[in-house]
Design goal:
Helix content: under 10%
Number of helices: 1
Strand content: 35-45%
Oligomer: single chain
Radius of gyration: 27 Å
Largest sheet: 4 strands, antiparallel
Length: 446
């Protein structure tokens, strides 16, 4: 939605006093000039390296409590030219929407309150029923798929409610294992002009496909043999990996990242050769797609709960593991996104995770890694983003929320932590926003 710094030093020039000569009064023969020692060289001041991109806290008015378990969305919901933040919290009633007015975020969630508690999950904002107005669709971690349709008066009407793959129901009525959805991906995958949706189960629901009829209300489950029917899936997205005009599926599945290629009619084939399938399950979370090495192919970056961000290059039929984009960190993480923050024409990584795996409690942070367009990345230290101080993290999104043409950062945090014995200084908000600033004099394009 994947770096060199110039060193600027201030150098003080030290001048020498001019030497004077002394002539003897007892002899007409002049004595040699007395040598005057130069002052000892003074140490140069420690240079301050200003990053080519930095970030300023811009979350005033956003929630200071709650568990924001989602990749927040930044979109012009009502078509007025102003971007809103839309997020789905855990243990509150429905999605929340925030708009900025005079530098302060204001709650604009009226009409989106659900009847029961939602548990966080993936969400998208787009026109589901073809009326020209943006609607809301989300997958709740506990209860399944919901849609909210924007009406002509600017309010919200309930659409679908608690849709889930009921074929998974077992004889013991153990339905809660299959109802929850960790994430969704929305797009027209069968070419009929209507939005369809993929859902990733939060417990044992696997990956499922529902075809839409253009109303935003009715969703028909379709059996797709190549998709797993068990296990959980933390993220889903649709991209055209082959460049044939068909939307393919990328999944952060519990058994490893998976890519499924669309045949143009809604049938999919597993194309995950080269992607990892380790015995440890559930370690991949956030993900994004983009050309990271300038070869015209879509590559992928995934947030590994143990190892941190991982990059895989598209090699026309198989995937190749890239170099570690963040070797300074060993703490793992949950959220990742791609954007050109510094304006050099190359995709950079924003990563939500932990610098040190030995740190516990409020130890998470936000990190930006500048890309060079050749598949290598460099950590931007002292960027203004919090290196620590965040509670349990969920997802991060790069999007221009202030309308200046430069991508900014929004992140969901507030989840539980391993220990609350120490809490480093950090932002008060748990739904976070940071505005991007560029130092254009320090950005080079190649």
């Amino acid at each position: 939605m994947t770096r060199s710094f110039l060193l600027i030093a201030s150098v003080t020039l030290l001048g020498c006093e001019s030497a004077s000569t002394t002539t003897s009064v007892e002899s007409s023969v002049p004595e040699p000039a007395l040598a005057v020692e130069s002052p000892l060289p003074q140490p140069k001041p420690t240079p301050t390296v200003k990053p080519a991109v930095s970030f300023v806290h811009a979350a005033k008015g956003l929630p200071t409590s709650g568990q924001w378990k989602c990749d927040p969305r930044v979109v012009d919901v009502d078509g007025d030219g102003t971007l809103e933040i839309v997020a789905l919290p855990r243990l509150l009633k429905g999605a929340r929407m925030f708009l900025m007015q005079d530098g302060l975020w204001q709650d604009a969630s009226a009409g989106l309150e659900s009847d029961g508690i939602t548990c966080g999950g993936g969400l998208e904002v787009l026109d589901l029923n073809g009326d020209g107005r943006n609607d809301l669709i989300y997958g709740c971690h506990c209860k399944g798929l919901y849609t909210w349709l924007r009406n002509a008066e600017g309010g919200w009407d309930k659409g679908a409610e608690a849709v889930w793959p009921e074929y998974l129901s077992d004889a013991n009525d153990n339905n809660f294992m299959f109802q929850g959805m960790e994430d969704i991906a929305v797009g027209d995958v069968d070419g009929d002009g209507h939005a369809d949706v993929f859902t990733g189960g939060s417990d044992e629901g696997g990956i499922n496909m529902f075809l839409g009829d253009g109303t935003g209300v009715n969703w028909e489950w379709v059996s797709e043999e190549s998709l797993p029917k068990r296990g959980w899936c933390t993220r889903l997205m649709l991209h055209d990996f082959e460049g044939d005009g068909d939307l393919d599926l990328f999944a952060s599945y519990c058994r490893g990242p998976k890519v499924y290629i669309n045949n143009g009619q809604g049938g999919f084939t597993d194309a995950s050769l080269g992607l990892p399938e380790p015995p440890m399950q559930g370690i991949w979370w956030g993900m994004e797609v983009g050309d990271l090495d300038s070869d015209g192919m879509l590559d992928i970056v995934v947030a590994n709960w143990v190892n941190g961000p991982e990059v895989f290059f598209n090699r026309a039929g198989q995937w190749e593991y890239g170099v570690d984009p963040f070797p300074e960190a060993d703490g793992g993480g949950t959220g990742v996104d791609l954007a050109d923050f510094d304006g050099d024409g190359h995709l950079d990584i924003v990563f939500l995770g932990r610098m040190n795996k030995r740190q516990m409690g409020h130890a998470r942070g936000l990190f930006v890694l500048r890309g060079d367009g050749h598949g290598h990345f460099e950590y931007v230290a002292d960027s203004g983003l919090p290196r620590t101080g965040l509670s349990g993290t969920a997802g991060v999104t790069a999007a221009d929320f202030d309308g200046d043409g430069i991508p900014d950062i929004v992140a969901g945090t507030g989840l539980s932590v391993e220990s609350s014995r120490t809490r480093p200084e950090g932002p008060a908000e748990v739904l976070l926003a940071y505005r991007t600033q560029r130092d254009t004099a320090r950005v080079s394009k190649d």
